[in-house]
Design brief:
heterodimer; A: about 110 residues; mainly beta; globular; B: about 110 residues; Immunoglobulin-like; five-stranded antiparallel β-sheet; disordered N terminus
Chain lengths: ~110, ~110
């Protein structure tokens, strides 16, 4: 079946520009996560959505980062006024019921800020 | 702060041998742990999970061992194959029963040589 889909797969942007990254979770999955992975590093938690509950935004590194999840499905991660240190792979994952069920990851969006 | 770490950043094994990847976690209250495999250019792929009420769980060619006394997690891969070459991450649920937030370690690279 269809897995988690992320778009674009690659994004190159100039410093100071805004970018939007999209995530289509697995159909029926109520939990959605965004992580960031810098080159050769582990995964850094950014934000978590579960059903209609308020999202856990505790991992967002600054107020330039925001995310929405519309209709309990598609999610968009927005980075405003991008900086070079924002360059990383942004990974989205979904799960059927949050903890207790494994996360299924997309292949990520590789963001390069020049 | 709380963290998940790995003892060996790189592990080289001969094809056919067994591999053991280790992980130390610091939050004694964590109640759910997952191992992921990540190949180059792809998102992490779920391998196996274990709850804190268990100390061992087996899958196909893989076994996860949990030692809560010393807060240690290991992944054993039997008869390692070239296709097992990847980076392996362990992850823990930092806030069990409350916030569904998985915290990932920095990863161990497994290299399989003929």
């Amino acid at each position: 079946g269809a897995g988690v889909s992320q778009s674009p797969s690659n994004k190159v942007t100039e410093k100071g520009k805004d970018v939007e990254l999209r995530c289509d979770p697995i159909s029926g999955h109520t939990a959605l996560y965004w992580y960031r992975q810098s080159l050769g590093q582990g995964l850094e938690f950014l934000i978590y959505f579960q059903g209609n509950s308020a999202p856990d935004k505790s991992g967002l590194p600054s107020d330039r980062f925001s995310a929405e999840r519309t209709g309990g499905s598609v999610s968009t991660l927005t980075i405003q006024r991008t900086q070079q240190e924002d360059s990383a792979v942004y990974l989205c994952a979904s799960s059927s019921q949050g903890i207790g069920s494994p996360l299924h990851f997309g292949n990520g969006t590789r963001l390069t800020v020049t | 702060g709380e963290s998940v770490g790995l003892h060996l950043p790189t592990l080289s094994v001969q094809e056919g041998d067994n591999s053991i990847i280790n992980c130390a976690y610091s939050n004694s209250a964590s109640d759910y742990f997952i191992w992921y495999k990540q190949e180059s250019g792809k998102g992490p792929q779920f391998i196996i999970d274990i709850r804190s009420n268990m100390d061992k769980r087996q899958g196909q060619r893989v076994t996860v061992l949990l030692n809560k006394t010393v807060k240690h997690l290991s992944l054993q891969i039997a008869a390692t194959q070239p296709g097992d070459s990847a980076v392996y991450f362990c992850a823990e649920n930092l806030k069990p029963g409350n916030t569904d937030k998985l915290i990932f370690g920095t990863g161990t690279r497994l290299q399989v040589f003929p």
